[in-house]
Amino acid sequence: MSIRIPADIQSLVEAEQLQRATALPSLVRTAVILGGCVTASLVALWASHPVVWVVVWGAEAVVLNGALSASHEGVHGNLARHKGLNRALAELWCLLLPLNFSLYKAFHLEHHRWTRLAGDPEPQAEFHSVWEYLAAAPFTGLVMLFQMWKLSLFALVGRFPGFVRTRRQRRAVRLDALLVLTVTAGLVAAAVAAPRLVLLLWGVPVLLMSPVFTLTALPEHYGCPRVPEPLGASRSTVSNRLFSYLYWENNFHAEHHLLPGVPYHRQHRIRAALGDRVVNSSPSYLRWHLALIKELWRTPPERRAGR
């Protein structure tokens, strides 16, 4: 499906070479974020204080949620111009979860092709009550990871989802499935040998990542019109600089769907140029979720179902 890009935005992209991927920002950000996580974990192990662990777990949950955004940039070739380095960085971030990068790539490109339309593999969530929302919110990320892990396992026995079509895609998915299975086996072995350590350093952050995933992923398309135009079918959310940094600027989501080939660290230029043409925009993640809860509380289910 072809996307119509406004002439002034296209001129800006060409004039400033905004679609030119460079490795240095990705390498620096990867080193800063992972280095920070390692340092924070060592401090928490040394301090061995519950308050310190809570702070570290919260930060690492945000980082793990951002790991999906980092690999997402790799899907579009935005982490580095060199294909091998781009893939290596994307694979690194995926395996922290662990997630099959090639499977996720096929899934995500299909999502871009059919966003909010028939054929979109991304779940089209629609809540009918506050209780339904509250029951799902803590577990959405874990459900997503488990479903992708299960699809990865099925690929090893030749069962592929519909969005994995070509022989080349299937070969890549199978190779990454072996990698994911190896990492999973390593995690299981580590958990048997040192269960407390694995729980503290990986298990709890992954559990906490799940509601953070709901916080950031749900606003991207929820309630947006089912139209082929990216700016209509996607939503951007304003966020503070630190969270946006850890989230790899994926909060500029409508801009990304318009120009997925513009790397994360340049999406703010697209946002500034588009201005109020970003029709679906939220002032913050928290305010968007509070507004959704308020709407679910006030609007009868039969009226929501009729829309």
From TrEMBL:
Pfam families in UniProt: FA_desaturase
Superkingdom: Bacteria
Molecular function GO labels: sphingolipid delta-4 desaturase activity
InterPro entries: FA_desaturase_dom
Entry keywords, A to Z: Membrane, Transmembrane, Transmembrane helix
GO biological process: ceramide biosynthetic process
Fatty acid desaturase domain sequence ranges: 53-281
Transmembrane segments: 27-45, 133-157, 177-194
GO CC annotation, single: membrane
Protein's name according to its UniProt entry: Fatty acid desaturase
